[in-house]
Amino acid sequence: MPKLIIRAGQAERHYWRDLWRYRELLYFLAWRDILVRYKQTVIGVAWAVLRPFLTMVVFTVIFGRVAKMPSPGVPYPLLVFAAMLPWQFFSSALSDSSGSLVGNANLISKVYFPRLLIPGSAVVVSFVDFLISFAILVGLCAYYRFLPGPHVFFLPAFVLLAFLAALGPGLLITALNVEYRDFRFVIPFIVQFGLYVSPVGFSSAVIPPEWRLLYSLNPMVGVIDGFRWAILGQSSLWWPGFCLSLVMAALFLVWGIVYFRRMERTFADVI
After folding, report:
1. Which one of 65, 112, 144, 241 has the largest count of C-beta atoms within 10 Å of its C-beta?
2. 3 in a domain, yes or no?
3. How many distinct structural domains can be found in the chain?
4. According to the model, what pLDDT value does residue 40 have?
5. Alpha helices by DSSP H, 99-208
6. By residue range, what is the domain housing residue 117?
């Protein structure tokens, strides 16, 4: 009887080809997580709408009414929600992907497939929430009788940028969470801290000019400014800061992929 010998790393040469071959598994994992997220919930899919909406209300009251932050040419709720969409997508993807490998430990230890699909499916689920939340933006535009300009045709490019900006840190953190389980306690702090250092409740224009470049080291600054430019048509992008944020998002993506791939061989043993 012929013997089948399985050697560690044998599939490494075809890893990226296997990502395409196993694409149906990505769909299955994402669909499973969507069903689990909204199964036996009181308000179901509406939860994806309420979270950003209530956050927008709080930011509008605190930054718009109390702090009197400027809102150049657009209603303040629109200014906030145009930033809340990509931020909610980023924070949800980061939180969900961080525990995705640990949550699928049984699957990882039993069968081979590119492990990259698991955190990738978590980001896809967050993207579905993003699309649902987009309905609020349409409603707000209708309420304030605001019609987006031709810049809106660039919105898909910024959506892709938000997807990649969320995927990079997600891969890095989920790999770290496998090796260091207490790392999951750091994620809520990162998300909460990032919300206030990103231009969600205010415009990036309020940052002093001498700090703008340093502030743009946060990759979400470029993503949020890009969303506001595409949806609200606010003047023009500050290209030095936007390009720096774009470079930082690319660096995080490469770093996340490289670290994830380096640790991937040990996942089945450590998890």
Report:
1. 241
2. no
3. 1
4. 59
5. 100-103, 105-108, 117-143, 155-179, 186-197
6. 21-270
CA–CA distances in Å: residue 142 to residues 83, 134, 145: 18, 13, 5
Contact 141, 147 (CB under 8 A): yes
Residue 224: inside a domain:
yes
What is the C-alpha separation between 45 and 34, in angstroms, rounded?
10
Strands in the chain per DSSP E: none
- The answer to the question of residue 8 being in a domain is no
List, for residues 81-125, the tens digit of each pLDDT value: 888 899 989 988 888 888 888 888 888 877 788 888 888 888 888
Whole-number Cα distances in Å, 179 to 259, 266, 270: 12, 9, 7
Please state the pTM of the whole predicted model. Answer: 0.85
Q: 3-state DSSP call for residue 222?
A: helix
Amino acid at 266: T
252 within a domain of the structure (yes/no): yes
Query: Exposed (0-12), middle (13-18) or buried (19+): which is 158, by Cβ within 10 Å?
Result: buried
